[in-house]
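Here is one chain, start to finish.
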Amino acid sequence: MTVKSDPVLLDSINYLIPDHAGRVVVAGSHGGLYCAFKCLSCRVRGVILNDAGVGRDAAGIASLAACEPHRLPAAMVDFRSARIGDCRDIVERGLISACNATAHALGVRLGMACRQAAAVLERGAPGFQPVQAQHEHRHEVSFGELTEAVVCLDSASLIQPGDAGRVVVTGSHGGLIGGNPAKAANVAARFLAFNDAGFGMDDAGAGRLVPLADRGVAAVVVDCASARIGDGLSTLHDGIISRANHVAGDEGFREGEKLERCLRRYLCQGIQPGGTP
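Its structure:
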């Protein structure tokens, strides 16, 4: 008789390790391609993620198709049903909004409770094929007329100590990891941008903004429909600001404006922390 086990709960897919092989994983992350790569590399039995509002080019659920050739069952919870970045909330309140064919064949259905879906995924028997490596990228983007480069990252996990005091644009969702304000950012950047992941349950997709303002850091989120989540360059070049904290607002960042345009203006003015030219 198969012994059922509780799913592995991870606030971020970056916490996934090879020891989780053979387990069903519920993670607070969006369902982008890199998440699929992590799950395939660690050979999990099944995975449930947050659909992050689905967003531009359906980037928030891209891992569904990526898992299918490996018969790895994958499903998403509706961003409106549970807080992104908070795996415990996802497993308690999340409702399935999408799944791949493998998960559907096992019995996962739209509207199903996350915990029930996780139990269904225990029946999974992936047939892993060689995986093409997926990398999260770090770019230094310079605007021709400006000397200061923008740090552009696919994930906020790539922020380095040397990024303190710099302008940093990420492809990450704007939710608090595990609901912890201390994890809004691990480095005191001068400016930070994230994807709003559709805002969702309890306005979670903008959860980092207030804690960052409390530290004096300007921060914004961009509309998930305007930029591909998990793609820092798309945040920079395509993103339209959907919300700014009061520090960013004082420095000229406005809802409805293109992020790139605002950053050009901000850097041209030479604004330093605190808004002083």
